[in-house]
Amino acid sequence: MEIKKKDIRALTKEQLREFFEKNGDKAFRGNQVYEWLWQKGAHKFEDMTNVSKETRQMLENNFVINHIKVDQMQRSSDGTIKNAVRLHDDLIVESVLIPTKTRTTACVSSQVGCSLDCKFCATARLKRMRNLNPDEIYDQVVAIDNESRLYHNRPLSNIVFMGMGEPLMNYNNVIKAIDKITSPEGLGMSPKRIVVSTSGVPKMIKKMADDDVKFKLAVSLHSAIDEVRTSIMPFNATFPLNDLREALQYWYAKTKNRITYEYVVWDGINDKRKDVDALVEFCKFAPSKVNIIEYNPIDDGEFQQAQSKAIDMYVEVLESNHITVTVRRSRGKDIDAACGQLANKS
Ligand code: SAH
Questions:
Q1: Ligand 1, atom 3: nearest CA belongs to which residue?
Q2: Using the 8-state DSSP alphabet, how is residue 123 labeled?
Q3: Is the dihedral of CA 258, 264, 270, 271 positive or negative?
Q4: Ligand 1 site, residue 169, Cβ cutoff 6 A
Q5: Comparing 125 with 54, which gets the higher pLDDT?
Q6: What was the pLDDT predicted at 297?
Q7: Which of 3, 75, 169, 252 has the fewest C-beta atoms under 10 angstroms from its C-beta?
Q8: pLDDT tens readout for residues 327-345
């Protein structure tokens, strides 16, 4: 019977050092191998040229190196690139490179499919689900960093966890991936350039605050009225707005970080004055910023982007209440790379 070998990149540096010690070698060997895996991006044990042949064989007998593979890369007319990424078990996730004049942002996935059930999101319709491992998240970032250097002549500058999945439902692995991305032994990126976007899992928002994380938080709110929010994001029945607000209050008290909300305005759903008033009320407890994002159609017309006069009303009312508001245009729509469109279609 073949023994299932462990993914060596699931081990911390300390665990690798212990492995070598237990196997009669020096702990230092663990550092060397770790460097090959993370700084030099080795795909095979035989690439580790300063490690003896016997040690490489020993590693081969015990472990595998799982790497993602960019199966297909699509380029949009606006410079956006979408990667279909094949995982070691042949499942696929998508990640996106979004260039602007001054930045290159990677939008990465945290799960295959999603644990939640937002009615307006294409990813929610995918049946299959598993959490991504830290190295699978990290590899998506490295792939986009390489593409950014190749096609835009600059390194990646920002990361948003707005691809497939709910990052706070895969918290431990997301945290491990961010540790690696920000560590000098990984990509050395500043955590301030990373945004984790959540549909709002109150318990995990409090945990993030307790863990004193340094990255930024964005909350996909879409409505500050329970009834409306539950109709478009059914899990809101389990995590109602009061619990979400309480968790965000806790987050703000600990971090003093302004809270960013993502918000789509839909025709006939949340485009009335009472919807804006509820949003203003919800935002009151902490300095807030509302990003109004364009709706990217995924279906047969159940949801429609609101009229521009509804968006203008949101902007006016929010601004008059001293809440920062931006209206963002979608990128990469022609290749189904925009928010909520990631569904492994091609
Ligand atoms: N689960 C996380 C991150 C993934 S979704 C979250 O909910 O925040 C990233 C963002 O895209 C969220 O703000 C989500 O509400 C938004 N989104 C989902 N479907 C969309 C669509 N069809 N058009 C525009 N935005 C969408």
A1: 162
A2: G
A3: positive
A4: no
A5: 54
A6: 87
A7: 3
A8: 987 777 777 777 667 676 6
Does the predicted TM-score (pTM) go above 0.85? Answer: yes
Q: Which atom of ligand 1 is nearest to the CA of 330?
A: 24
Q: What's the distance, Cα to Cα, between the start and end of the chain in Å?
A: 37
**Do 342 and 94 meet the contact criterion of CB atoms below 8 Å apart?**
yes
- How are beta strands 69-75 and 81-86 bridged, if at all? antiparallel
The single residue of 54, 94, 114, 166 carrying the catalytic annotation is 94
Count, in order, helices (H) and strands (E) of the chain.
10, 14
Q: Which residues pair with 276 in a beta bridge?
A: none
Residue % of the chain over a pLDDT of 70:
97
User: What is the DSSP pairing of strand 104-107 with strand 92-99?
Assistant: antiparallel
> Which pLDDT does position 129 carry in this prediction?
85
- Strands 63-64 vs 69-75: parallel, antiparallel or unpaired: unpaired
Reply yes or no on whether 14 is catalytic.
Answer: no
- What confidence category does residue 123 fall into, taking pLDDT thresholds of 50, 70 and 90? confident
Six-digit token string for 143: 């792939």
Q: Is 262 in the pocket of ligand 1 (CB under 6 A)?
A: yes
Q: Is 298 in the pocket of ligand 1 (CB under 6 A)?
A: yes
Phi/psi-derived region of residue 182, left when phi > 0, alpha when psi is between -120 and 50, beta in every other case: alpha
286 forms beta bridges with: none
Q: Pick from 120, 168, 205, 331 the residue to mutate for probing ligand 1's pocket: most ligand atoms within 8 Å of its CB.
A: 120
Q: Inter-axis angle of helices 13-22 and 28-38, to 10 degrees?
A: 140
Please give the distance, rounded to the nearest whole angstrom, from the Cα atom of residue 161 to the centre of ligand 1: 10
316 catalytic per annotation: no
232 lines ligand 1 (CB under 6 A): no
Residue nearest to atom 19 of ligand 1 (CA): 340
Atom of ligand 1 nearest to the CA of 165: 1
> What would the pLDDT profile of 9-33 be if each residue is shown by its tens digit?
989 899 999 999 999 999 999 999 9
